[in-house]
Design a protein that fits this description.
Structural class: alpha/beta
CATH topology of the largest domain: D-Maltodextrin-Binding Protein, domain 2
Strand content: 5-15%
CATH class of the largest domain: Alpha Beta
Number of helices: 13
Shape: globular
Strand order of the largest sheet: 2-1-3-10-4-11
Distance between the termini: 119 Å
Radius of gyration: 28 Å
CATH architecture of the largest domain: 3-Layer(aba) Sandwich
Length: about 350
């Protein structure tokens, strides 16, 4: 008698096509779940930053000056850089620094932060530090989510609490300068060898560390005299108390006309890595990506470009990495500041 073969549930005879179909379905499901998890993580990161990111700016940055191009447009050759038409330049900068339309430093930075907030969609809160010490103590405690600092400050707080570089000024390195009294006897840098030169504090990076480090590399000996601030250095040289002083192009432009008109820039240093915008490691990747895009695109916007001029950013920002400031680690501050025979603080 014929007996039909009993049905079997052995998976070994399931068609291979069906197996592939199930495998394909599983992969698709995994992909969908992964996408959902990605979206969920993004939403959670946004929720975590319901509070605004706190932004700080080093107090050493000078107040705004509207006329940034006046100096550069009149410079034809490097060797004649400081032999421009000083009278005309003073008139232009006098108008710029005395203009009632100029914002204060706090307002200038608040306007920049507000622009970036709108462009990135990330809520930001600008907190002005009361002093350089206050700013650096807050950096040490990790108080700021974002901070615009000097290279020396970034180097100090890179390992702990772990700030990381995000953006920097594009094609605009830091340069220190040496200036003298316009009616004084000094005409060349060579005349200042072994002379006493006034500088702001030991750790003022742009106006003190940069010019002294540059001269040290040239084996150009000087006797640094440290004063309490950049303004004291400028006034001291203008009044004839010191034969020369150290400063920066930005702070020189920001001087009151009655001080600046009595001074002359004599020498500027080679370029050093520019000021970094750094972020605390707690700031999430997605927020940083949006913020970096907003920084880089700022110069492409008419209003953004105008705001940049007030914070001495001429060519916009570009994305940065920690290694852009490796040169700072090569500066031996103990040697630079530790020659007790050649330096004395005031």
């Amino acid at each position: 008698m014929y007996r039909p073969h009993p049905q079997t549930h052995d998976n070994s005879i399931v068609p291979s096509a069906l197996k592939k179909s199930k495998a394909g379905f599983s992969c698709s499901a995994i992909a969908v779940v992964s996408s959902l998890l990605f979206i969920l993580s993004f939403s959670l990161s946004s929720a975590l930053h319901a509070k605004p990111l706190i932004v700080g700016v080093a107090p050493s940055f000078p107040k705004p000056v509207a006329e940034l191009e006046a100096l550069e447009k009149q410079i034809v050759k490097k060797k004649s850089k400081f032999a421009v038409k000083q009278k005309k330049l003073d008139q232009q900068l006098s108008y710029a620094t005395s203009s009632s339309s100029l914002p204060t430093k706090t307002v200038a930075w608040q306007n920049v932060i507000s622009f970036l907030e709108q462009a990135s969609g990330i809520e930001l809160k600008y907190e002005a530090a009361s002093s350089q010490l206050d700013f650096e103590l807050k950096l040490a405690k990790g108080h700021y989510d974002l901070a615009y600092t000097t290279p020396l400050q970034f180097h100090a707080f890179k390992e702990f609490p772990g700030y990381q570089a995000q953006v920097k000024r594009k094609s605009q390195p830091i340069r220190g300068l040496i200036f003298v009294k316009k009616t004084g006897p000094i005409k060349t840098l060579a005349e200042l060898r072994n002379a006493t030169i006034a500088f702001p504090g030991l750790l003022d990076f742009a106006a003190s560390v940069v010019p002294r480090e540059s001269l040290n590399k040239l084996n150009f000996d000087i006797i640094p005299q440290f004063l309490s601030s950049q303004s004291e250095v400028y006034k001291g040289v203008a009044n004839g108390d010191y034969i020369a002083g150290g400063g920066t192009d930005e702070s020189f432009r920001a001087l009151p006309p009655e001080i600046r008109s009595r001074l002359r820039m004599l020498w500027d240093s080679p370029g050093f890595s520019p000021y970094p915008l750094i972020a605390h490691p707690r700031v999430d990747f997605f927020s940083l990506t949006k913020l970096k895009r907003a920084f880089v695109n700022m110069i492409k916007d008419d209003e953004g470009e105008k705001l940049l001029k007030y914070i001495f950013v001429e060519n916009g920002f570009e994305v940065a990495k920690n290694s852009d400031w490796d040169e700072i680690g090569l500066i031996d501050l103990h040697i630079l500041n530790g020659t007790s025979k050649k330096s004395h603080a005031e």
